[in-house]
Amino acid sequence: MKIFKIIMAIVAVSILAFAGFLGYSYYSYTEAFDTENKPYKTYIGYIDLEKALLNDTYKLCDEGRIYNTYSSASLKAYKGSKKRFRDHINATFNNNSFTDSGYLNFRFLVNCEGNAGWFEIIQMNLDLEETTLNKTMVDSLFTITSNPENWEIIEYYDAPRNYYMYISYRIENGKVTEIIP
What we know:
By secondary structure, the protein is α+β, with helices and mostly antiparallel strands. The chain has 2 domains: 1-41; 62-180, no CATH class. Helices cover 28% and strands 24% of the residues. The chain is built from 3 helices and 6 strands. The longest helix has 29 residues, at 2-30. The model has no long low-confidence stretch (mean pLDDT 83).
């Protein structure tokens, strides 16, 4: 009688485990990657190539695969160094007595040839609320940021690749006070 109870318990646990596995498999196959009713329909670092600025200037390599989409290429993307980039911004950006303060964020891709394109621009005030900054100031920083002389060609697996990058300029009274990252 004891053996029968043990065998029945093993069979019941096995059936429950198998049912749990089937339920998890069904969820993973049908629901986990369904973005239809979710607030974030794309991956981190996604840029809509059709709506982005400078989307027709250069071509993406490697069938459009993008590397470093979660954290950007960050410090290894700056040609020379971040200090050189900061010095370049300070030397070429003429604040023309702008009075705006806020954050000017550029999200973009750099192709395997080191050409920056596919830009999205997000403008915020210092309280991180979306706003509109001076158009001439935004255009000036956009021109400087999109210049290919600023960006390295980054290799992965011994071949140059496309990568995701972002830059946030903290601007106080029209002067760039910080460049993130």
